[in-house]
Design brief:
mainly alpha; transport; 2 strands; Arp2/3 complex 21 kDa subunit ARPC3; 71% helix
């Protein structure tokens, strides 16, 4: 019983590793959209928070980011420490924070309703886009010296990308509704 309460027991380590792998796979399933490519990373980072809870979901995303930053090409455009200078790196930060928030909003309820899951997922989506868009703006403005206006930023980094991510939030909620009782046993 004591081992089950530990954050990183064998089951939790396996689940974290599974989600690290799924997030990496999700990075390579992409549809090219200007500036920010559409991938399945949001689906898997959201599911990490829903199924694993706040701490483990966050841990899985952070391990994924760490694996990419040490040089293993698991990000949509490669990997390595210089990836922090990519305009899309902010989305990775948003994935970690969003996964944590999704976990907080859903982990205390054994069988969260579909409405609660959708609400948590859409809050996660806003967090991811907030971090991502701020980072795109900052890197373009202060590092790349290619300033981007607010309207083009909103168009390319939100309007063009969000419809697919809304669908992913719905898919994650439906999957979460079915899988949460199984995974959290």
């Amino acid at each position: 019983m004591y081992a089950e309460k530990k954050l990183l027991n064998v089951k939790n380590m396996i689940l974290c590793a599974l989600f690290v792998a799924l997030i990496a796979i999700g990075a390579f399933i992409k549809i090219p959209v200007p500036v920010c490519p559409f991938t399945l990373q949001l689906l898997f980072t959201t599911l990490a928070g829903l199924l694993l809870g706040a701490r483990l979901g966050f841990t899985a995303v952070i391990v994924y980011v760490a694996v990419g930053l040490i040089g293993i090409p698991v990000f949509t455009q490669g990997g390595g420490p210089s990836y922090v200078l990519q305009p899309t790196f902010g989305y990775l930060i948003g994935f970690a924070v969003g996964s944590y928030i999704v976990g907080i909003l859903t982990e205390k309820i054994a069988r969260p309703s579909l409405v609660r899951l959708l609400t948590a997922n859409f809050i996660n989506l806003l967090i991811v886009y907030l971090f991502g868009m701020i980072y795109v703006y900052a890197i373009n403005e202060f590092y790349l010296n290619t300033p981007i206006g607010i309207w083009p930023l909103f168009l390319y980094c939100f309007v063009l990308a969000v419809p697919g991510d809304i669908v992913l939030c719905i898919v994650a909620a439906v999957l979460g509704r079915k899988l949460i009782p199984v995974v959290r046993k």
